[in-house]
Write a structure and sequence with these properties.
The protein is mainly alpha-helical and 535 residues long. The chain has 2 domains: 59 residues, no CATH class; 403 residues, Up-down Bundle (Growth Hormone, Chain: A). It has 18 helices and 2 strands.
Length: 535
């Protein structure tokens, strides 16, 4: 462990000395005071002639003895998550990706049984879209809590609180007897399901060395899009198979229960400040010496002030960082479009081509396949390029802008996919044409998210959970709102012009990763947000 122990002795009225263990900031403060003494000859009313009556001394000790009660990680410390074994990291990573898939699958799983829900509860098709939107709205509320709280109490407690509650909401949906109950449980389900979305990216930054983080992020990024695009396929065939809508929620309950069991037994705490705080607590118990402390334990604030600081952190970070705000808007548009497709695809394929809900769900399949292709491209092509940059910048890491390479390609693919889908959506054209537009769409989305997501993590390191929470809050707002106007938009504008409108917006946003790639260092240098990257 690294220590610093600085003793400052100041004169008291009884001529005794007060000795305290202080941190690095106190050392700087004392040194500054000594410089003031040297140049001014005065200390709070004492003249040079009084120096014999008053002493201020700083005892300099070796680095090994400094801060001897401050608990930090040593080099190659086995408790440091970055030093855990490959097997342990793999299990944690696989679990995090599965929980993301579980959360996002739940968001759109009812889409295949919407007609059953409309018949049972007696609401309109617009109200049916609310069943999807309310869950995604929960993704907006949840990160306000889970991201900042995980940076104070740790990743594991948040998971162990949110996952059982999420399972409970799925049981509530399956047993619902009226419209109010299912809508309330859907909203609450989204709030609790947001915890993995917020914290899993932060877990990756906890356990994966920056040089290898990109490969892990490739698998992590596909989760938020594989889930919602696979869900219509699953529930659509459950509907065609004659299963009740309740079985959709029982299926989700079983999957969520499996994720809960995995999180209990295979998801340890990964947040370093909390691990150090736990170590300090253990040292106090083992030695009986209460002077052992960790940095997280010194953050003493009144409860209300602390709560306000925790919950406001994502918003403070977002509005202090125009760069983060721009990235968030771009990612939010992409996310909103993903959920808009759950209303647009039935118009093109069910109404236009006459497919049932099961076959219509199959039309989504090229989207996750495109996403998986993007992951493969990253491992085969993009990551080797990044590793070259790692070697060139050794012993420091490349600037975060090197993470944006994938986004440059994704920004180009996205508008191409929109125009492809739009102008091949005529019923007279084979369904294969609009269906296969999903492939570049999925590829472009994941390439964009891979670059932008990694850029956020590398830029905001210690505040990664709050930065990601800010992006999730606003992208969830888009994801909740877009399906509500999708039907009217595609019916009034026709799929051709509705899709083209999305394409034009994508073209307008396409320069963003190119601008960040060129001007990112200058923008980061002017950062006013907390804990910017030290790259």
């Amino acid at each position: 462990m690294q220590h610093r122990d600085v003793e400052a002795s100041a004169p008291c009225s009884d001529h005794s000395s007060v000795h305290t263990v202080v941190d690095r900031h106190d050392v700087s403060s004392i040194a500054s005071s000594l410089r003031d003494i040297r140049f001014s000859g005065k200390v709070e009313g004492y003249g040079v002639e009084d120096e014999k009556k008053s002493t201020v001394s700083v005892k300099e000790e070796s680095t090994a003895e400094l801060d001897k009660y401050l608990v930090l990680f040593e080099k190659d410390d086995p408790e440091d998550p970055l030093n855990w074994s490959f097997t342990k990291k793999f299990i944690i990573t696989a679990g995090a990706i599965l929980m993301i898939f579980n959360s996002t699958l739940a968001s759109s799983l009812p889409s295949g049984v919407i007609l059953q829900l409309e018949s049972y509860f007696g609401f309109s098709s617009e109200a049916g879209a609310v069943v999807i939107s309310l869950f995604v709205l929960g993704f907006l509320i949840g990160p306000i809590l889970w991201g900042p709280l995980s940076e104070h109490y740790g990743r594991r407690p948040i998971t162990l609180i949110s996952m059982p509650l999420f399972v409970g909401t799925q049981i509530g949906c399956a047993l619902s007897r009226n419209t109010v109950s299912i809508l309330i449980f859907r909203l609450l389900g989204g709030v609790f399901a947001a915890a993995p979305l917020t914290n899993s990216g932060a877990i990756m930054s906890d356990i994966v060395h920056p040089a290898f983080r990109g490969k892990v992020m490739a698998g992590f990024t596909v989760g938020p899009f594989a889930g919602p695009t696979v869900a219509p396929l699953v529930s659509g065939w459950m509907n065609v198979g004659g299963l009740s809508w309740r079985w959709v929620f029982w299926f989700q309950t079983i999957l969520a229960g499996a994720c809960l069991a995995m999180s209990v037994f295979a998801q340890p705490e990964t947040f370093k400040p909390v691990i150090l705080a736990n170590r300090a607590k253990r040292l106090r118990q083992e030695t009986g010496d209460n002077r052992w402390w960790a940095p997280l334990e010194k953050q003493h604030k009144p409860f209300l002030q602390q709560t306000k600081a925790i919950l406001s952190r994502p918003f403070v970070l977002l509005f202090a960082e125009p760069m983060l705000m721009a990235i968030t808007f771009y990612m939010s548009f992409i996310y909103g479009v993903t959920y808009l497709l759950f209303e647009a695809y039935p118009i093109v394929f069910s109404i236009g081509h006459g497919f049932n809900s099961g076959v219509s769900g199959l039309m989504f399949l090229p989207i996750p396949i495109g996403g998986l292709t993007a992951c493969a491209l990253y491992v085969i092509y993009f990551d080797p390029i990044y590793q070259v940059a790692v070697r060139e910048h050794h012993p420091i890491f490349p600037p975060p802008e090197y993470r944006l390479h994938t986004s440059l390609y994704g920004a180009v693919l996205l508008p191409i996919a929109f125009f492809w889908f739009s102008w091949t959506s005529y019923p007279s054209i084979s369904y294969w044409a609009p269906m296969m537009a999903g492939f570049p769409l999925g590829t472009g989305i994941v390439l964009l998210y891979l670059g932008l997501f990694s850029y956020i993590i590398d830029t905001y390191l210690a505040s990664a959970a709050s930065a990601l929470a800010a992006t999730i809050i606003f992208r969830s707002l888009f994801g909740a709102v877009f399906p509500l106007f999708a039907n009217q938009m595609f019916e009034k504008l026709t799929p051709r012009w509705a899709g083209s409108l999305l394409g034009f917006v994508a073209i307008a946003m396409a320069p963003m990763p190119f601008i960040l790639r060129k001007y990112g260092p200058a923008l980061r240098a002017r950062s006013k947000g907390p804990a910017p990257s030290g790259y």
